[in-house]
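Reading a protein record of the kind used here takes only a little practice. These numbers are not coordinates but entries in a learned vocabulary of local backbone shapes. Here is one such record, which you should read through line by line.
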Amino acid sequence: MRARKNSSMMINSIDLETSRALNIMRLLAVFAVVMLHAQQNVDVHAGWQGALAGGSEAFAKFSLGWSCVPLLFLVSGYLQFRKPLDAWSNIRKKINGLLMPFLIWNTLWIGIVALLQRTQLFASVATTSIQPTVAQWNLVDWIHMYAGLYLPGQAYYPFDYQLWFLRDLFVISCFAAPLFWCIRRFPMMTLAACAALYALFPSLYVIKSETLLFFVLGGVWVNSGIGLREVNRAPYWMLLPLWVVTSVTCQFVPCASLVAVPMGVLVLVRFGFSLAHTRHANTFGRLGYLSFFVYLAHEYTLSILETVVNYAMPNVGQLVLAVEFICYTILIFAFCLSVGWLLRRYCPKVLSLLTGGR
């Protein structure tokens, strides 16, 4: 390898340990996403209130919940910038790998909800108070339900909510070439500018500012010539207290999330490498290949399961809702992993279509 000065963007290969750790990080991040969305659904749609609700919200958000998607952006940036970039080839790959799954899953969910809205049994559940039925959408509604643009004072997401991650990642990947140039020549200035945008502006009209920051951070990390495994040098006795303190502070000082989220990302990276050295590392690594499918499918499963449970048990106590939150997280994660494994084993072409060739 050339000297550090000329070695930027030259981490072309990833060793087995790092590859396994990256898959485990993705798995941990997606589990945290499922946990966060399970809590939000129980809280919003089932009327969860009181101390249990507040405690679960704090746990879901600040126990790595808010750091999970930034970690996915960091990993994407790290992988994107580790080798020379062909701009047009990269865009073609992202169309197949990100845009196509985005369109497929968003369209599927719109179709499912449109069908449910036409039935008397589920019409009131599928139609929310913040949007008209699918049949009543005008052109602007359709644009919002796909593009999910951020407007001043408003935040729109794709109809299949969690797909904002794919939208943001696709948009930022289309600008990878100029970012590549900036990171190679002015890495710290570029990172500082992105950090300032992250602190001052939550959204940039088309993408979230956290998308830009952590995607660039992944590129700067590669540019530094420092491997991800170097995080192992940070001991848990130092990382965990800092993460806990900043996370708790977020409850009282919202801007503390500017520190808590990056700390959570570092903790997840550290966890990934720690699990990569356990006897079950190969199993975790193989399951990590299905994390993208779990991310795409979990909102479907959560919405359907929640609808059935709320219909069967419309009025339950707060303790039961706490149990629902835990069960939702475990059942949805396990179910989506199982479906992904079955598709990979028996219908690999279908899985490839749904996940953009993964």
User: Anything to note?
Assistant: DSSP finds 16 helices and two strands in the chain.
